[in-house]
Amino acid sequence: MRFSFSPGPALQMTSLICTLQDHRDDVNWCAFSGKLFATCSGDKALRLYNTHDFSELPFSPLTGHGYSVHCCCFSSCGQFLASCSTDATTMVWSTSTGEIEAILEHPGRSPVRICALSPDSAHLVSGASDGTLALWDFPSKQLLRTGAVSDTTMVACSFSPCSQVFMTGSTYGDLRLWDLDMNQLHAEKNAHDLGVTCCTFAPSILSDGHFVQFCLASCGQDSHLKIWAVNKSGSGGYKMQLLHTLTGQSAPVLCCAYSSDGQLLVSGSVDKTVAIYDAKNAVLLYALNQHERYVTACCFSPTSPLIATGSMDKTVNIWRLEDGCSDLGGKSLPEQSALPSSEGRTSAGRSRLLVSDWAEGDVSAWLVEEGLEGLVDRFMANNIDGTELLSLTKETLASELHIESAGLRSKLLRKVEGLKSDSVCSGIPDEFLCPITRELMREPVIAADGYSYEREAIESWVNTKNRSSPMTNLPLLTTLLTPNHTLKMAIGRWKTSH
C-alpha cells in the first residue's frame, strides 16, 4: 500500500523541540510516564528526565546493569521503572530516588531482551533470548510462572488494556497470545517474515456483549507495520485478523507505539525514518528524517502531544505534535512552551525555535558554531538570550559588552543580521518544507511514493532522475501528481499566524 495525507478530522504537524544526546551507545528503548521520560542504552545505563523541560534528574543516570539495557517501562502510577538487560536480570527502580527496589533474575540466566508491565501494574513479564518467559507478581516481585517457545528469542511483549492477556513476538516471526496462567490462547505463525521486532496493544477495548476486540500493532524484519484485530468470542476463544499492512518504510521496522487515545501510530525503521500514521484509517501522515542511523525506539507521551524517538546514533529526539486544522473540527492540542537550552540540544533542535526564543545556552552554542567562542563567557556573564542578541548594536557591543575590536563588532553584527533575515524561516515545521529544495512549499503535490513535494521541484526531479523517488530511491509507479490541498491550507494558516 502507498499512503498520502488524509484530510481527516485533524491534520497533525510535527516539530523537533529537543535532542537528548547523553548516552554513549545505541539507544535501545524509551518510555514516558505522566511526568517522567526514560531511556536505556547499550552503554548499560538508564537516564531519567522531567517531561516539563527534559532536564535530567539529579540521580540520573541509573547504573546497575552489567551489560546492555534492552527495554524499560514505567508502572502505571509512574512510581517505578522496570528495565531488562543482557545480564539476565530485570531491575525495578524507584523513580523518586533512583534506588534499585528489586533485582529479578530470569530463570535459566539467559539474556533478557524484553519486559512489559500490565496496565494495572499487577504483573510483569520478561522474555529472554532462549525463548523463555517469566511472569512476576509485581507488587511482591515474586516469580509466578514460566513459559517458553523453543528455538527462538523473545523480543516483543505487550499487555492488553484489560491486563488479563499479553502478546509476545519472537525472532521466529510468530505472535503468541498468553493468559496469566501462561496458557497459549492463540499463535499467529509467520506474522512477519524474518522475525517480529516489536508489538503493542492499542489502549482501547471494543465490546458488544458477544465479543471483545483489541487492536494490536506489530512490526518486523519484513519492513512491514501491521495492524491486527484480536477477537475474543463469547466461548472464550481468540482469533487474530489482519486489518492493515503498512509499507511506509523501506527497511526493517524496529519499533512501534500507539498514542494514548489510539488514534495515532508511530514506527521507527532501519531506513532512519520515523513514520506517523492515522491508526484508524491506516494513512501515513508524516515521515521524519532527523536521525542519522537506525531508529530503534519510539513512544508517545500519555499526557502531552509529544513523541520520542531513539536511535543507534545515540540520540533521542523529542517531537511536538500540533493540530493545524482545528477549524475543520479537530481538537486543538495544548501549547508546549519552548524548552530551555541544555547540553543535549543540537543545532538541528535549536533551529526549530525562533531566534527570539533562544535561551542563553543556545546563543552560546551559536557563537561557537560561528567561530566566535571567545565571546561566550562575556555573553553568558551579561545573560544574552535570543531576544537580546537580536537587539545588539555597535554601541551596546562597545559600551556594555566592552568588545573593543571594531572588526569583531562588525563581524558579529553581520552574523546577527543573517539570523534576522533567516528568522522568518527558522520556525517552519519540517513538513512544510519540500524534501528536494528544503524551501517552504507553495504548490504541494503528492507523488506516487506517498510524500509531498513542491510541484516544480518534483516535476524537474522526475524529468532528470529517471522516475525515482527522492525519498526512497525506488521507481515511481506513476508520474501522476495529486494536489495536496490539506497541506496547502495548513501552510497558509501557518504563514498567516507568523
SSE diagram, text form:
Layout: E1 12-20, E2 27-32, E3 36-41, E4 45-50, E5 62-63, E6 69-74, E7 80-85, E8 89-94, E9 100-105, E10 112-117, E11 123-128, E12 132-137, E13 142-148, E14 154-159, E15 165-170, E16 175-179, E17 184-188, E18 196-201, E19 206-207, E20 212-220, E21 225-232, E22 238-246, E23 253-258, E24 264-269, E25 274-278, E26 283-288, E27 295-300, E28 306-311, E29 316-323, H1 347-350, H2 360-369, H3 376-381, H4 386-390, H5 394-399, H6 406-426, E30 444-446, E31 452-454, H7 455-464, E32 482-483, H8 485-497
Antiparallel strand pairs: 1-29, 2-3, 3-4, 4-5, 6-7, 7-8, 8-9, 10-11, 11-12, 12-13, 14-15, 15-16, 16-17, 18-20, 19-20, 20-21, 21-22, 23-24, 24-25, 25-26, 27-28, 28-29, 30-31, 30-32
Task: Please characterize this protein's 3D structure.
The chain has 498 residues and is an alpha+beta fold. 15% of the residues lie in helices and 37% in strands. The protein has eight helices and 32 strands. The protein has helices at 347-350, 360-369, 376-381, 386-390, 394-399, 406-426, 455-464, 485-497; strands spanning 12-20, 27-32, 36-41, 45-50, 62-63, 69-74, 80-85, 89-94, 100-105, 112-117, 123-128, 132-137, 142-148, 154-159, 165-170, 175-179, 184-188, 196-201, 206-207, 212-220, 225-232, 238-246, 253-258, 264-269, 274-278, 283-288, 295-300, 306-311, 316-323, 444-446, 452-454, 482-483. The strands form eight sheets. Strands 18, 19, 20, 21 and 22 form a five-stranded antiparallel β-sheet that branches. The protein has a four-stranded antiparallel β-sheet with strand order 1-29-28-27. A hairpin with a 5-residue loop joins strand 21 (225-232) and strand 22. The longest helix has 21 residues, at 406-426. The protein is globular.
